[in-house]
Amino acid sequence: MKTLKYDVVVVGGGPAGSSVARYAARGGAKVLMLEKRQEVGSPVRCGEGVSKKILQKIELEPLESWIANEVAGAKIISPSGSEFELSEDLAGNETGYIIRRDIFDKHLAKLAAVEGADIMVKTTATSLIKEDGKIKGVLARHLGEEYRIEATVTVAADGFEARLSREAGLKTSLKLRDVDICIQYEMVGVKADPLYTEFYVGQGYAPGGYVWIFPKSERVANVGIGVNLMFSERGATPRRYLEKFIASREDLKGAKIVEINGGAVSVSMPPESVTLPGFAAVGDSARMIDPLTGGGVVNGAVAGRVLGEALGRMVQGKLSPEEALAEYEKGWRKKMEVQLARNYLAKEKLLELTDEEMNDLIEAVGSIKLEGLSTAAILKAVKEAKPSLAEKFSDFL
């Protein structure tokens, strides 16, 4: 067995893992990032919509290579067909650019490598190394060879399955209502508006979730659905609902499927702690996905930067490992925990709404000028336009 020694080992090459690796390496840490697949970014498991704000938050310049389309905003459509439009500035973390996620992820990994991080693809972390009450690295398999990778801090960025987080002892188990099952088609021959992403909400469209159309060009779009797992026992399979939606749409009739991808998404609150001695989780493995939208690219990358910068200060001697992890816990929670909590409560309430109530909600929000697509702004609109419906959300008001 070969032994490697690093300051930081990151398991997972998605936006969260690459951001940790990039900023830790920039700070002077000796970093190794492991990716179990043969290339970073494939297969795609995402709607591929991100806000432009992410570029500033993780210092990215927009590149034509990974931007498929730039949209002006979003349309939210109710079961009755009523809708309201939001500009890109107000539409949240999933609107702005429709990206080519495989190329985007690989670009982030390259940025980490430019900063000095080492990367091993087609490498599986098989287990954690635990000694003296601390996690001190991982055992891994790369191209048939076994490796012992020792590190001061081990980072789990291994996605929804969160295998390493569970092995470490973090409480990342999920209830049925805290999981959405998603499937997405990339379709050619679509006649949807290329300037707007579209979100269809209501139990008739997608029980406990929503259908989306993300235009990648004038004739190409990602058409997908997320259905809350709580409804699966009632026969609410995502594919059945997605096929029903596509069959009902003139703008999708005749369109051809050129790619199918899917998977599970956590729509839960994060655990009380995402760190242990010598260990940190980030992104979906730390349950940082937005519970209301299911989007996780922005949160994972931003939290990854917070962690990477703290680890950089660790190797510079400014922080002990314990202090660096404590700084990470405090830092990422300051940036997003309140919003995650509010959106989780909103998600819980929306699970209970009938289609009639959803129609009222969309009409209420569309009747006034929103100050932003935030839970607080939506609730303010509901209270002003539909006082009776607002009673369902009294916990927020």
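(ticket continues) Second input and output from the same batch:
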Amino acid sequence: MQGPRNRAQRSRGDVVDVAIRHYELGEPIEDLAVDRGVDQSTIRRWLSRARREGIIRTLVVPPLSDEDRTTLRHEVRYRFELEDVVIVPGRVDVMDTADESSKKEALVIAIAQAAARYLENYLTNRDVLLVPWGRMANYIARQIKAPSPLPELMVVPMEGVIGIEYDPFEASILASSIASKFGGRSLLLPAPAVIDSDIRDVIESLPLVKRVSQQYADATVAIVPIAPPDPKNSTVVRTGLMAVDTVEDLIKRGAVGEIASHWWFDSRGGVVTQGEVHAVGLGLDGLTDMVTRRAKAIAVVGASRERIEPLRVALEHKLVNVLITDHVTAEILASGD
């Protein structure tokens, strides 16, 4: 017999699941009611509860006209010689708010939704998609609703394993999740994300690791998160992946940004090494190779003023060639300010 606490936990899980499916995935209330075997009024009560408890975070964004969106899209695309640009409406007041702000989070999710729609429309059975570790990739994976099966799609982690416990942000887990959405295939990268440089050759020559890294040469699409180096607030510091003094040293040596939490670059787009450690995976050289052969390296970045400068460097120095962002970020990039 279930106690009150177990019923409450199960009920909250129902509320979260229904909120995600209705607000993020667009499932109608009537379909959710049928799937759950309850009345539509029950679904509405769950959604009301989700709003009361802050599970649903609402952000009102003024509409962006098709003409303004098209003009801005072309300005950014031609300024940075990009393959494509996707822009969602943004808000100026969100740019400087804290990462944990519900408004910022809502806009980040909107950008992730645009990335998911882009992948749904672009990916084919011939593609090899590279997936990073992190929050943005997790949001994108959750938003994907594949319009049709792609059984030959290959989804590959672009970096190694962060930890030994289950983590929904892990690249290998996200690769598997996205592949399952499309009915495709995925690989696991059986190596730590960061290793000592003196064992690099040993680790990267292992047959299971080489099987994954060989996919990088054929990769046609990559999801690319970009962030500034921040000794106090960087994800890699907050999660214990890097020490504060390590990030401070990277900044002293010229780092202005990082990609997928492990590849650091300077103001000219050059590699800034992490001292005696090596990050296993695609790397900046692999990313620039993708751009050179006109595969799609998709920067999914926005809702943050501090990310604009590293994003600008990545665009100017051809680390990426597709941009998905909000219109405020796009306007700042287009103006050159």
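Agent notes: The chain is about 45% helix and 15% strand. The chain has two domains: 4-52, 66-335. Closing as not reproducible unless the customer responds.
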